Amino acid sequence: MKSVLSWALRSALLALLLVHLQPVDSIAEKTINIGTGSITGVYYNTGSAVAKMFNQKRQEYGAWMLNRPSAGSLENINEVLGGQNQFGISQANFLFNAWNGMGLWENSPKKTLRAVLGLYTEDLTLIAADDAEINTAIDLKGKRLNIGEPGSSDHETSGEILAVLGIDPAKDLQLSEEPTYIASEKIQSDDIDAYFYTVGHPNLSVIEAISGERKVHIVPFEPDFIDKLAALRPYLLADQIDVTFYEKLESKAPVPTIGIKSVLFTREDVGEETVYRVVKSIMENLDLFRRQHPAFSSLTKENMSHGVIIPLHPGAERYFREAGIAY
Ligand code: GLU
Q1: Ligand 1 proximal residues by C-beta, below 6 Å
Q2: 255-267 and 113-129: which strand pairing?
Q3: Which of 16, 100, 167, 267 is least surrounded, with the fewest CB atoms within 10 Å of its CB?
């Protein structure tokens, strides 16, 4: 009995000692998940790039970052709030609505969400088959349009865009509600005429969609539509899709559309040290980070510390303060 007690006592003392030996700022989470998107989008590449930067020091940190594919912004917000993931990537509009209790979060503001870093601009992209003769968004009337699977960010965004265009999905369209990563197949198998995707460029979805027999193009939006949307919210901006990476596209002219910032975010109770290390590992390797995807080429310390829509996590603030980066 005595020896069991002394064993228990010694173990307890050892545990206490170990706790005290841990540096006060050690990373609490050992496996850190980042929720991203489908593997044909750019969020997935972004999650890989963030994990690559962080994992360079995985031994020192005693922590790993794992990229987890998902259905995009909405699922990422839900999984960060639900505790399955510590980090996620989202379009600024969804974070804005979640924080402010608007749209899908009407009367249920999510005040525990925190921003980490601003990322690249995503573009509202309408991909259409040439034979369907969709030269402007309003030509979608009567056509077979994929709007994403119900409950996904793409579905939500498509609904909002169609409302601004004055197109009634039930009456004016032949709707398809497949996940967007399948839409690039469906356009080639002639099951749909067009699909919406809000995404950075270049991406594998467009590459797949334009690489088959059926000729496909990216539809430019009218200036009126762009102005109308840009006037709605400060985070919606007129933008142009650079299509020079898409070898198989006939026209290489930039495509006018609306752009929105993507944001790396977390939750209030994720450790300050964890968030600090994530930000530091990206900021101190920014040249290498930018080389991970062409969509990252215009990222700077300045644009990554601004326009993040919701309050910054203290770990990100600490890094910006120490590095002398205005935020
Ligand atoms: N913007 C899309 C979304 O919020 C994701 C795009 C991507 O995966 O790159 O779901």
Answers
A1: 37-38, 41-43, 72-73, 91, 122, 153-154, 198-200
A2: antiparallel
A3: 16
